[in-house]
Known about the structure:
Helices cover 4% and strands 50% of the residues. The protein is mainly β. It has two domains: 7-14 and 389-488, Immunoglobulin-like, CATH 2.60.40; 26-382, 6 Propeller (Neuraminidase), CATH 2.120.10. The protein starts with 6 loop residues before the first helix and ends with a strand.
Amino acid sequence: MRKVITLFTVLFISASISENNLHSQWGAEMRMTENQDPSLTSFDNGYSVAASGDTVYIVWEDGGGSSFDIYFKRSVDGGMSWGAITPVSANEGESRFPSVFVSGSNVYVVWRQIFGTEYETYFKSSSNGGMTWGPDVRLTNDPANTDYPSIAVSGTSVHVVWSEETNQKYEVYYKRSTNGGISWDSTVFLTPGDTLISMGACITASGQYLHVIWYDYRDGNSEIYYKRSTDGGTTWENDVRLTDNFAQSRYPSITSSGDYVYAMWSDDRPGIWRVFFKRSTDAGTTWSADTALTGSPHFSEFPSCYASGQIIHAVWFDMRDGDWEIYYKRSQDWGVTWEPDVRISNAPDKSWFPSVTASGTIVHVVWSDYRDVNWEVYYKRNPTGNIVGQKIINNEVPVKFSLQQNYPNPFNPSTKIKFDIPSDGSQRLLSVKLIIYDALGREIATLVNGQLQAGTYTANWNASDHPSGVYFYKLISENYTDTKKMILVK
């Protein structure tokens, strides 16, 4: 006879584990840099950290005066240990404001580079996880200054946005490559051309949907604006104003997962800078009301957000403790409710400009820190803060392990994988991994990596960022492994 365990009990255990993970599973702070020059993460719209499976990448600017360069570091064990520092930018002159994106073993970086007397946007990529790098690619070529690039990738399409000074005004521009950065289309002008300042553009991609956000002074004060493309950047819809108040709204960040799009920014409408949040459940067609994520009577600024399925991760720096510290917040239900703030830095001086990402069950955060009387890059991880993609669907406990065929199969771009975790007669949790591999056997995604209660689960995989082809998924637990094949057709 099959043993029966109530769904309430399983959910209660899962909720208890989740709450403990949030508040106690953050590891120790790790110092990533150590030299006499300032080492700084991107302070506006750029992402300084990206991850794929157990491989984590960070980028930053390092130097002083006109000698700033872009540097890179990676971990292949989920952030527990790190390799050597590697220079990315190769040109002479100042290189600043990097942004990184990863898709499988492909790593893409953009930054601002001085060329002659002008600032231009540059791009560089690696096809082997950052072991070797291709040449620098100059994306802009005009007498105007460019600033603050942001990058997103979907499949083989690479998308870059930046701000550019034209006739003493800053506007937002866009450029794409449909072949992984080998060649690039013409530059597209995204803002109307009559604004005083349009800056801080940030981009996210979900399949053919591109979402761009920035702050804009066209209304007399800075407001948050949004624009989308539904065809991979070929055409763009009209601008949408997301904020409408007399306060200043700046420094936005945007992330997406399927049809869900999430925007965060700093706003001083209460008379002090706080972090606000807005979401769309229909790929940017409509948007919810503004929600204040921070309620402290002290400054909260420069949010960074990342969506992983139904979970949203947010970080920012905050003055509530008397000095600037990095804070973290999480939603596990698509932004409907949010858990309490968690302070993740602990320094006697400034901790600024954080970036967040997640892969598998691990959450990764990097930031700039002045505790060493010099700006250095710090890193912190939560190994169980991103339990996402699996949910229990049956209140009966299976009697044996089982990995079922994904459905649908073939699929585009999402599929579900169902698996059973049996009970051994005790209440203990079992270590479970569910890993996705490409046809060459390279690990490209980890859907499950943690301790699970006995039960029947489904895990969702969204392959929007991967090309058509054959993939394999493997379930690994105690004394059990099984592998099945699936086909992505786009």
